[in-house]
Amino acid sequence: MKSIRVFLIVVLLSIICLVNFLAALHGYRSSMAAADRLLEKQITNSAQMIAVLMSNSMEIPEGVFPESVYYQYWHAGMLLKHSANAPDTQLSATEPGFHHENFSGVRWKTLVYPLAPEQSQIIVAHRADTYSNLSEEIILKSILPIIWVLPFLGLLIWLVVYFGLRPLHKLASVLRQKKPDDLAPLENEGYPAELTEVVTSINNLLERLNGAFERERRFSADAAHELRTPLAVLKVGLHNLVEESGPKSDNLQELEKGVDRMGHSIEQILAFHRLSPDRFLTNPEVIDIKEMARQVIIDLYSACALKHQNISIEGPTVNVEGDRFALATLTKNLVDNAIKYTPINGTIIITIATQGTTACIAVEDSGPGVKDADLQKVFDRFYRVGGAILQADVIGSGLGLSIVDHIVQLHKGEINMGVSTQLGGLKISVILPLTQKNLIPID
């Protein structure tokens, strides 16, 4: 069902038309039966009058019957008298009673009226179509006003349905105007009894959702503190252990990598939580993408210098409207991913450009790239190219590109991945709209 309003209007009009049709059909049958009874009465009266005149040996005056009435007087199979307009042949069957006959191209109703002398009878015929046509004309005149009034009746039904559904439209408008982070209960006044229960159920749902989101926010805040603090203590203890034991053993190196990987995973998971749609773009900003990329390189330069990699930024200054934290996380994850998988003495190029009403951020490297079979899987959470064993030396959690894809979707952009024609490795291109106006956040 696409529209309750259309459904009600169509059903009500259909019911009215059906009821009118059944009423007209019943009226037609009743009128035809009444007309037939009236015709039979007139024919009987005519036959009785003729019989009285015949029994008194009186002549039937000319013009006493209209042209639509025929009569014949038969005795012993012989026609003794008949009206001037009647034929010489017998008008009807010889059995007494009413009959329907067709002659002279007209439908007639006849009455065979026996007389006291045996083998004598009077046959009277009246045109049956005159009464049926009159009944049909009367019925048609009574039905036509109903047909003419149907458009006005449809308009009246539309108005009644429209005003009857106004509370439902009001409720829909209130829900449509609610912001993603507005979980306040709805006003429960001014609604009919049928919608009051619906509004109450919606308020109960909003209350449960608000409680669930509040518990989630508290969990996030607590997790950020409870996870980061023990991890920092663990790093300090590990550092002290290394200082006390001298050169790092293989076990201590593996332990240090595990701690770093754990810290990285915690930061990525907390970033994922912070980028939830209900909190996204509450305060959009105009951001210089090139300056943001330059700051990301500064933050990650130690990792880049450790592998003697060459990293550069190309392109003009481009301003994009969006969430600062989200775009910074996107750029950081793209560059960090390139640094991790680019070999020693490799090259990384970040290109900033504009394409009409969109901005393009492309990060390409001279690393091994990604196989075609893995191009779509890399956006899955916790998926790492080559598996955890092959990438044991690379610190990561498999969430970086998944977070990038999530941020791109929140900004109504698109992401493409392929082979870098310039460096031979992986190239990731992110296309974002320059402005977020008229864009609805993803639910």
Give structural notes.
The chain has about 450 residues and is α+β, with helices and mostly antiparallel strands. The chain contains nine helices and twelve strands. It has helices at about 5-55, 130-165, 165-175, 195-245, 250-275, 290-305, 325-340, 385-390, 400-410, and strands at about 70-75, 80, 95-105, 105-115, 120-125, 285-290, 310-315, 320, 345-355, 360-365, 415-420, 425-435. The protein has a five-stranded antiparallel beta sheet with strand order 2-1-5-4-3. A five-stranded mixed beta sheet has the order 7-9-10-12-11, with helices on one face. Strand 1 (about 70-75) and strand 2 form a beta hairpin. Helix 1 packs antiparallel against helix 2 (about 130-165) and helix 6 (about 290-305) runs parallel beside helix 7 (about 325-340). The model is unreliable at about 385-390 and about 440-443 (pLDDT under 50).
